[in-house]
Design goal:
Elements: E1 2-6, H1 11-23, E2 32-36, H2 66-75, H3 83-96, H4 107-129, E3 133-136, E4 142-147, H5 155-165, E5 170-174, E6 178-183, E7 186-191, H6 205-220
Parallel strand pairs: 1-2, 4-5
Antiparallel strand pairs: 3-4, 5-6, 6-7
Helix pairs in contact: 2-4
């Protein structure tokens, strides 16, 4: 059974789908998780997101500890292609093997915790090591730019913190998977830039601006207004 998700970090979709799967008693070994590229690469986190309501029984998930929900929030950001399979297998076992929550050396539990720790470390490294530098855009307005290569899917998770800590009113960050710009406290996520095309810190302003135009110009067209 194949289950499609809307992007590599679609936690809301994962939660919705596992409720269906648990209600139908579908075992983990019968499920193949298929994260799909988003239909629209641009995401404004301040706009209402479409919900995915399901009329399914939730009694099975009621016994799941809150710690597992928090664990999922980090594990889905890991780059391991089997992360969703691991999480559903753990959830299935928590429902059918309640004693699992008291087994700190279980192999699945340890693997999920290791993955969550790797993601937390990656977020910390991004916050600590990110460097932006100032250039002027084509209108002469100040703009800070930077490039980074995180190990996991952490750009969207780290960006709200960066938005609060970076003093510049306008900045943009390019990564291979996702790009993000911030203007006066408002975030917009866009498509990533291949590693071979990421500007270096010493790159001329024209190269940074050209990269900015390639990434965000499609969003700024009238169709997105």
């Amino acid at each position: 059974m194949q289950v499609k998700l809307e992007g590599p970090t679609d936690l809301a979709g994962f939660r919705s789908e596992v409720r269906q799967l648990l209600a139908q008693q579908v075992p983990p070994e019968q499920v193949e998780w298929l994260p799909q590229p988003p239909a629209d690469p641009f995401t404004d986190p301040q706009l209402p997101q479409a919900s995915r309501p399901r009329n399914v029984a939730r009694a099975a998930t009621a016994i799941v500890p809150a710690s597992f929900t928090r664990l999922c929030e980090f594990v889905v950001l890991h780059r391991d292609p089997e992360r969703f399979s691991l999480l559903y297998r753990l959830l299935w076992r928590l429902v059918h093997e309640p004693q699992l929550r008291n087994d700190p050396v279980d192999a699945d539990v340890l693997q999920a915790q290791h993955m969550a720790h790797a993601v937390r470390r990656d977020i910390h490294k991004m916050k600590a090591n990110l460097r932006l530098h100032a250039i002027g855009d084509e209108q002469g307005q100040a703009l800070e730019v930077g490039a980074y290569e995180p190990a996991h899917h952490v750009v969207e998770a780290a960006s709200p913190w960066l938005c609060k800590r970076i003093a510049a009113p306008r900045w943009v960050l390019f990564t291979p998977e996702r790009s993000v710009r911030c203007e006066e406290g408002r975030l917009l996520f866009g498509p990533g830039v291949p590693v071979s095309e990421l500007p270096a810190g010493e790159a001329p302003a024209a190269q940074w601006l050209a990269c900015y135009e390639r990434v965000f110009a499609p969003y700024d067209r009238p169709a997105h207004a």
